[in-house]
Amino acid sequence: MNLMDFLDSYQNDPATFLVVLFIYTIAASVFLPIPVEIAIWSQAVPFPVTAVVLGSGKAVGSIVVFIIGVRLEEKIRSWIKWRWFNWLIEKSHAFVKRYGYYALYALMSIPFMPDTIPLYVFSLLNKEGEVFSKKGFAIANFFAGATRATLIWTLVKYMGIGLV
Questions:
Q1: In the chain, how many domains are there?
Q2: Which residues contact 134 (CB under 8 A, 6 or more apart)?
Q3: Residues 6+ apart with CB under 8 A from 116
Q4: Region for residue 121 given its phi and psi (left: phi exceeds 0; alpha: psi -120 to 50; beta: otherwise)
Q5: Model confidence pLDDT, tens digit, residues 39-93
Q6: Structural domain includes residue 163
Q7: What domain range includes position 98?
Q8: 30/33 Cα distance (integer angstroms)
Q9: Quick one: pLDDT at residue 164?
């Protein structure tokens, strides 16, 4: 059974679908390189509920990534002895510091983009907690997840784009 078949098997049971969606969204944030949009379709669940569950899963997953990023930051910084890597880290950190939550929200709101790598990059560039707090990181990801779901829902519902 592939992932789509597994998700489709829960489409008509709203409670189970929402639990599976929540867990899948956390997994997509932390380690699955698959966009969450493939899992947001259920005729049995009102869209606003789906958007809140998707945003909540992204928030929880982002907290896990944030914690991992904080723990890996020191190790990553040990690589700055390489001149090119130091330059890349400093330029990236300057971008994150300048645009902070706006950049995080905008990037994480892009439909069909896997979340895993951008989340880790933002968490690793959070130089000693200078840019993001754990709570702010989670809130930005919650709203980005809800926005992302809304963009996809709008494309399907009002623009007639058949994504499912």
A1: 1
A2: 63, 66, 67
A3: 28, 29, 30, 31, 32, 33, 65
A4: alpha
A5: 666 677 888 898 899 999 999 999 999 988 878 777 776 766 777 777 777 777 7
A6: no
A7: 3-158
A8: 9
A9: 46
